[in-house]
Amino acid sequence: MKTLFLHGCLWLVACLWVTACSHYSPKPAGYFRIDLPEPAYRMQEFPGFTCRISEQAQVETALDSVQNEFFNLVYRQWNARIYCSYLPVKKDNLAQFSEESRKFVYLHAIKADAIREQRFDNPKHKVYGLLYAIGGNVASPVQFVLTDSVRSFFRGALYFDNTPNQDSIAPVLEYIHNDILILMESFRWKQ
Length: 191
What we know:
By secondary structure, the protein is an alpha+beta fold. It has one domain. The protein is built from 3 helices and 10 strands. The chain has helices spanning 2-22, 93-106, 166-186; strands spanning 41-45, 49-54, 58-63, 69-75, 80-88, 114-122, 127-135, 142-147, 152-160, 188-189. The longest helix has 21 residues, at 2-22. The radius of gyration is 26 Å and the shape is elongated.
């Protein structure tokens, strides 16, 4: 009787072993969890304007030879950078600046799933612009322009310093997109 019982137990263990190993399914590919800090902002002064920028961003500035302001908002922890340009508007160059910015956005149309334009108007502070959200695995998923239509033009473009993968950067992209909205809403020209 003991041998029959042991024989039955061995048979049960062997059956469980065979069936347990035959239904293996690998874990799906995933991305590391990104813990994002609570958004916090500070007012930043520049030669032609002021705006609120994220505490997570560091400002890298440089002036070129004709006094056009170029600077970057760098998010080192996420390998992201917003390239910014502040340009004085002369007689006929507002249309040129606007068209060049639009062309930069639509260069991404080859890879983009969608390009959404959102108008921005703040008549009280004479700040007008467009925010472009570019969907898909593109080099620059967010770009924007601001102007007072008379003296000043400002352009920004977000880039990540890695191969674009919309799924892996989604939480950081949303976080920085909100930072850009705060920047646009708080933007004030110095005049």
